Amino acid sequence: MKGDRVEIVIDAGGEGTRNYEVVATRAGRRVEIATRRGVVEVSEVTRTGTQVRTARFMASRVLALVEYPIADEQGEGEE
Question: Is the overall model pTM greater than 0.85, yes or no?
Answer without folding.
Answer: no
